[in-house]
Amino acid sequence: MTDRSVRNLVHLRSSASTARVLNLLNVYKDHGDEEEWAEKPLFRTPQLNRSMIIKHRLRRDELDAFPIKRQVATKIVIPIDTNDLRTGGRFLFVGQRHFERLMKEAFGVEHDHPDIATLKLLDRLPSLDPFLLREQLKRNGVEPAPCYLAISESDMARMLHFVEEEIRPLVTLSLGGENANSASSRRLAGKILSNEPGDRMEALRHTLRLEPEDYQEGIFCWKGFLYYKWVLNSLRGEIDGVAKAVRTVKPIGKVDRSAKEYLDRGREVLSDRITQTCAEVSRTLKVYDDAYVGLSVEGGANAFRDFLLAAPKMFARLGDQLGAVQHVVSFWRFRFGPNANPVSVDELIDIFMDFENGLAGRSQELGQSMIAA
Asked: Does 140 lie in the same domain as 206?
């Protein structure tokens, strides 16, 4: 299949990887002459290792391509000409009907090829945040060079500090107020963020009466909740700014009546949906907050145990919601930054349609009802 969404490909090439996009073409352009890039690739197939991987909200005409119902799919885009993305690209979806046959036809890889396993790991994630992507790959024995999953040292330091503060009440409860200190919080935070063999906080697993598989999956999703909580806190100022900017942005050139009507409607809808989606994210995170308070302050393990069991289902939706908001913020930052060129009428309409599609379909209720179930 061929994707001629020219605006998307051109701007994806210019922008960095985001929660919705893993831009391996840019990684190749920036690091392809480095030894580490070649020795520890994310994908062994050269074309895949220079592709664009996108978390794509399916359109109505794409739903039948899958054997099971889903709203978001992992899209692999191979540019026709890496030097001119206006030519578009060939694409296929991970998990679509006849996926393994199509992979063999397109890339010559068999069903048991490591690259197919890696793609399926990516597909199981709700978003392509580099932190969560690294964690998912590492716990499944895949460790590409750092350039593929760029996480700045400053971001990692801020994330570690956030987790330290978040789990301090648990340390205080476990060790007692007199014995709890910053070093203890830092050590526990390091354990939570670590995937090293043997460092699985077995005492907590026994306290929560969880089987090893349920515990491992729950802890991974706990990391995800902590990460998303940190991301939401970090983005709040920008989210508000984008929601306001959407209402006032103006394109250059003549705006005909139909375009004006669409843009006027789009401004109101997008601003409201950004605010509403953030509110939904906050409500889902509160499920975790309430369960964690029950464990760390009140000393009751049952609520947190139930949270860890329910977390995988909530984690997928939380990542989808926040990933859509992250994409809006990061793309807006890129396209409407201080040195950006003015936006045309058609491009602004395309941007609004892209954002609206990403933020659509979020009426499903999540929250305490999932814990009760």
From this structure: no
**Residue among 258, 216, 233, 278 nearest 349 (CA):** 258
In the Cβ-directed half-sphere of 35, how many Cα atoms lie within 13 Å? 0
Strands 72-79 and 2-3: unpaired
* Pairing, β 21-23 against β 89-93: unpaired
Contact 132, 155 (CB under 8 A): no
What are the φ and ψ backbone dihedral angles of 229, each rounded to 5 degrees?
A: -65, -40
Domain range for 228 is: 200-372
Quote the tokens at residue 354. Answer: 């892209």
Report strand pairing: 2-3 vs 89-93: antiparallel
What phi and psi, each to the nearest 5 degrees, are found at residue 55?
Answer: -80, 110
In DSSP notation, 312-349 reads HHHHHHHHHHHHHHHHHHHHHHHHTSTTPPPPBHHHHH
| 176 falls within a domain | no
- Predicted TM-score (pTM) of the model is 0.74
- Radius of gyration from C-alpha coordinates of the chain: 22
Question: What would the two tokens of residue 168 be?
Answer: 């301090």
pLDDT in tens, 254-264: 999 999 999 99
Domain check: are 126 and 258 in the same one? no
DSSP H or E stretch at residue 91: strand 89-93
How many Cβ atoms sit within 10 Å of the Cβ of residue 298? 10
Least confident of 69-73, 171-175, 349-353: 171-175
> Is 205 found in the same domain as 76?
no
Number of compact structural domains in the chain:
2
Which are the contacts of 271, defined by CB distance < 8 A and separation ≥ 6? 243, 244, 246, 247
The mean pLDDT of the chain is 82
Residues 44 and 115 in one domain: yes
